[in-house]
Amino acid sequence: MSQRTLVLLKPDAVQRGLAGEIISRIERKAGWRFAAMELRTFDRATLEQHYAEHVGRDFYEPLLAFMTSGPSIALIVEGENVVPGIRALAGATDPLAAGAGTIRGDYATITRENLIHASDSAESAEREIKIFFPAQA
What is this structure's pTM? Predict the structure, then answer.
């Protein structure tokens, strides 16, 4: 079943020069394609919409500070089973729990700065794409 998902390459991925490697991993998956890609520094208002479910949690403000600290790359990826596929490729949120061969398992160092965001469901992907790519929604 063809799907669309939102992927964010976070500021640490861009700063550490890992964006090309991560994009290459996604490209190598047969049948997946990029429908949109943009380098930008996210503003707080956009991130507040994206992370609304985390308001009030102890990691919320540090997460917003990190995500506004430098440029990120926002992507829409389309393809067969792309939502669970990108999540598997990304690995567990905690890099210590992420398996070898996953993006986070191979490159991430701490949970907050874990290189990549991938929508966790088709419904989340639809909502998130509207936030980051309203013209593509």
Answer: 0.95
